[in-house]
UniProtKB/TrEMBL annotation:
Record carries keyword Signal: yes
Pfam families: Curlin_rpt
Organism encoding this protein: Vreelandella andesensis
Any one GO cellular component localisation term in the record: pilus
Name assigned to this protein: Curlin
Keywords: Signal
Length: 268
């Protein structure tokens, strides 16, 4: 599943091409004719790492693999919950054509160092849905896709030894994305893409060198993105906000107690 989520992230990134750069994830930044490319290694190194991490199948026919799939369609006020502990977990939750639904995923609560967790949550064609994913261990992937308004996505990747990835994709108005990646050994990666109006994204990365956060928000108005990176070195924070009708947008980066970090905002 690592390669599938990586391919998905690449497809999203390509779809977000803007005039500033062929790939809006690119850390290259043109300022008055001077090209800055600080932090360029963060995305490049993680692309190669994720490409080689297809370490177990997505279905539980092999010993040690735990596989869960929940599908709920055409209703409101549904709840789906998956809790998995061990070393190889895969969970997929799909809630479609409904509102006020809730999805909860907890993986790796045993806290082992060799865990590989994969979580996919799809909430489509509904409003006021909520997804919450919590992962501990190693090699975590979380992908949340929400299509509708008033939705909330929260991802926590905690006490991971290496290489945790979070992707949140939201379309609709007044959606909120929150990512907390804390106390990880090295190289955490967060990608948030939000379309339409009234977006809010809050990203926190603490104590994980070579981390990268990328936020892309597109619509008419009301964008707000906040990124906090603390006690890290050689980390990257990028915020891209497109208000095509000239509406308001707020971007905030806070990098504390670190060295070699890079932050970049583009608003247009």
């Amino acid at each position: 599943m690592k390669t599938k989520i990586t391919a998905l992230a690449a497809a999203i990134a390509v779809s977000l091409s803007i005039g500033v750069s062929a790939d809006p994830r690119s850390p290259n930044y043109d300022h008055d004719g001077t090209i800055f490319n600080g932090g360029s290694g963060a995305f490049a190194s993680q692309e190669s790492i994720r490409a080689g991490m297809n370490g177990y199948p997505s279905q539980g026919q092999d010993a040690g693999v735990r596989w869960s799939e929940i599908t709920q369609s055409g209703g409101n006020n549904n709840t789906a919950a998956a809790t998995q502990m061990g070393h190889q977990q895969y969970s997929r939750i799909a809630q479609t054509n409904g509102s006020y639904n809730e999805a909860y995923v907890r993986q790796g609560i045993a806290g082992g160092n060799n865990e590989r967790n994969e979580s996919v949550v799809i909430q489509r064609d509904g409003d006021s849905n909520e997804a919450r994913v919590t992962q501990t261990g190693s090699f975590n992937d979380s992908y949340v896709r929400q299509l509708g308004s008033g939705n909330k996505a929260t991802v926590e990747q905690l006490n991971n030894s290496d290489y945790s990835d979070s992707i949140i994709y939201q379309t609709g108005d007044n959606n909120t994305a929150t990512v907390s990646q804390r106390d990880n050994t090295d190289e955490t990666w967060s990608f948030v893409a939000q379309y339409d109006d009234g977006h809010e994204a809050n990203i926190t990365q603490v104590r994980a060198d070579n981390s990268a956060s990328y936020v892309f928000q597109a619509g008419h108005e009301g964008h707000k993105a906040t990124v906090v990176q603390r006690d890290e070195a050689n980390s990257l924070s990028m915020i891209r906000q497109n208000t095509n009708m000239g509406g308001a947008a707020v971007a905030s980066h806070s990098q504390v107690n670190g060295s070699g970090n890079y932050a970049s905002t583009i608003q247009w």
